[in-house]
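Below is how a single chain appears once it has passed through the pipeline. First comes the sequence as given, then the structure the pipeline wrote out for it. We keep one example in the README because the format questions we get most often are answered faster by looking than by reading.
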Amino acid sequence: MGVPEPRSAGGGADPVTADTVLPRWRGEPESLLLVEDDSGDALLVEELLTDSDIRTELIWVRSLAEAKERLAATGRPGCILLDLHLPDASGVDAVGQILGAAPHTAVVVLTGRSEDEAGLAAVAAGAQDYLVKGALEPQLFGRAIRYAVQRKQVEQAAADLQAGQLRAQENARLERGLLPTPLLHTEDLVVAARYEPGRAQSLLGGDFYDVVQTSDGTVHAVIGDVSGHGAAEAALGVCLRVAWRTAVLCGTTGSGAARLLEQITVAERSDPRVFATVLCLAFPPDRRTLRIVRAGHPGVLIRQDGKVTRAEPPGGPALGLAPGRTDWPETEMPLPESAEVVMFTDGLFEGRTGPGSQRLGEDGLFELALRHTGLPASVFVDALVDGAGAAAADHGGLADDVAVVALGWKKAP
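Resulting structure:
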């Protein structure tokens, strides 16, 4: 007997029609690889395929080695029919080897009339089904092939889903671990923060903030915003936050820290057009003053005794706009007793709130703050974010990252 001739609809890419989509949906394999050393059994399979309602290409090889060569050369078929008694492999070993060569392909094994246990063992080893030679008819044969392909598709989809869920969980754990934890050795400072990344299904965006206390008792805080909204910008934001924390703990603060962050921005950014805005604060232990360095970033809100004021001291351009040619002045201002300083990124007020380019803006944010100024720090921060989100809800919401941090010394008892 000669090798059965492949039966195919012809070369070239098929158009996307019901005739091309439905066979895959029904579990009809695009090709069928028969691994069988007996020419009589191979002829039987060819006749069963001809008489069934499956229209696919049949490829016959006589050994497992030949099957592996075929798979390596032409890619995986839609289904593999595997005899369990081959010259170079048999039983569960043959199943394991073929699955190793084609792990994403449905496998149906062929057994003798008295080999049900061998068929069940093959299924336990990873095959989708087994068929008994000599007890087959075309309809059963076609149905077994279809079900095997569909079961493999379901198994693969379930495995892909589980892998995707695990990746998402790992990414969430990683991103959560990259969010800052204030490093303070005093309980006299109130810190309330809210972080909302603009990227869907993400915990981390290009905005960043951090709070640390140095050995002299000074509390330092930073908030920043990397331009753009992708993963590269989020990674740069994390890099800048960690660099800032390290610099401050090593004694580099204020404008010196800004210069260092600009060097890192230029070195690490994915595009020369990427820049970062930064606001650095320092709360000396005297609790009466506040030092501010501003690099292209919005100013701050100051809350005290039910009132809110705005402070926007002189600053310099954003980091990376004019590398090495800029300095950032450090401004010292009085800090009223029990005052609270609120830092934020521009995502809080840049959401569209009306037709065209109408946005909340810094004036609208200030009015929002005035309405909620009597609230405790954490509730006030939530009110700002939720209020800005509500104002933009009918126009796409807050599409950019948002970070808000409120800091203030507790009142003396």
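The first strand starts at residue 31 and ends at 35.

See the next section for the split statistics.
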